[in-house]
């Protein structure tokens, strides 16, 4: 083992720096701070760790990433060997490393041009993958309800197959699941076009599988989905009750997972709430990272509306945007629908919109009609109940089932059903995407408690008076 090409050390430094930018800090520290550069020999970099366990983990998770990054930086095919050294030798090597003390900016800056493809080819690649090119991370409006899902999706797009595999994004209709799923695919094609990406809905997957059986082309179907680098499947709740399709997806999943290929799925609810899904497939979906998209709060709804208005270069008064944000509490899709209707009216008739006209035009939309002209929103009810019981709105909407949270959550659901015109489905959506039966159970539970406990009943009545008196 010689260090015949000593400048590989600089390449290793730059490789480690680039990888550090793509991984969570704790993950990088846990593994990359436990390996060191030992030397190089004829297009081969030798790295060492203090135990076989460390090396096995680094090899299984990051070997391809390290090799690809080194090869990109050097402009040649570079292999990597891993050897075990004692902890004393590892620490000594770290002390001897001049790079350990060198500031980041002193390392040579190595610019490697990205693989360039034409705009036309880029668009064709996305179309061939069934992606919607308009869905990008740059036009996804981030709020408290979506920060976790957004960051997880971006991390996957930057480093597919290494972290968070598989990933499941779940949430109600119109929350942005499809947007994030397409954003992952579009980002990968824009930045690493050599990777093969495939986006399908669960319905498309099912239909193609059925057609392949009828045409006796099942092997072609298997090859199509098992030879991709990134598989994105939307709306897996569609698979409920479809046993043969579930069986095929199970085997596809295993094949891709063992090959360390990235998989991302979306669903309209947590996997545990799906019916007629085999246990072994459910366990696969839950194996990796599961993140939820909750309904956007008022601030996020306003940000989304302003972003959409700006994108369409349409003037819309603050009062009108506020009216939509207050009254359309269901999902992003309903927000866009409301805004589109107003913009179309203004542009087609070449008229400026007044707030009164906007109310008239939107009054027939289900999301507005359910709320009427009331200023009282479910978010407000949750906030008031949370303040009374000293718990946060996030906790009330969350998944925890602590005794201290269950009753405030049920009270907030009861009041939402009692003093607004929202349906149990809409209320469930506002409470973290819960099923309508959960809302019905909460309502019945609070009614029962009020009948048997006068003090409890007085508490509910007080909250109800406070909320109804606050209506504008």
Automatic annotation (TrEMBL):
Cellular-component GO terms for this entry: cytoplasm; plasma membrane
Localization per Swiss-Prot or TrEMBL: Cytoplasm
Keywords on record: ATP-binding, Cytoplasm, DNA replication, DNA-binding, Lipid-binding, Nucleotide-binding
Chain sites annotated for binding ATP: 174, 176-178
InterPro entries listed in its UniProt record: AAA+_ATPase (IPR003593), Chromosome_initiator_DnaA (IPR001957), Chromosome_initiator_DnaA-like (IPR020591), Chromosome_initiator_DnaA_CS (IPR018312), DnaA_C (IPR013159), DnaA_dom (IPR013317), DnaA_N_dom (IPR024633), DnaA_N_sf (IPR038454)
Entries under SUPFAM superfamilies matching the protein: P-loop containing nucleoside triphosphate hydrolases, TrpR-like
Region called Domain IV, binds dsDNA, residue ranges: 347-472
A GO MF term: DNA replication origin binding
Domain of life, source organism: Bacteria
Domain AAA+ ATPase: from-to ranges: 163-292
Residue segments, region Domain III, AAA+ region: 130-346
GO BP terms in the entry: DNA replication initiation; regulation of DNA replication
Region (Domain I, interacts with DnaA modulators): 1-102
Keyword Nucleotide-binding attributed: yes
Main location: cytoplasm
Domain Chromosomal replication initiator DnaA C-terminal stretches: 377-446
Function according to Swiss-Prot or TrEMBL: Plays an essential role in the initiation and regulation of chromosomal replication. ATP-DnaA binds to the origin of replication (oriC) to initiate formation of the DNA replication initiation complex once per cell cycle. Binds the DnaA box (a 9 base pair repeat at the origin) and separates the double-stranded (ds)DNA. Forms a right-handed helical filament on oriC DNA; dsDNA binds to the exterior of the filament while single-stranded (ss)DNA is stabiized in the filament's interior.
Record note on domains: Domain I is involved in oligomerization and binding regulators, domain II is flexibile and of varying length in different bacteria, domain III forms the AAA+ region, while domain IV binds dsDNA.
Assembly notes: Oligomerizes as a right-handed, spiral filament on DNA at oriC.
Homology family: Belongs to the DnaA family.
The name this protein goes by in its record: Chromosomal replication initiator protein DnaA
Species in which this protein is naturally found: Sphaerochaeta pleomorpha (strain ATCC BAA-1885 / DSM 22778 / Grapes)
Gene: dnaA
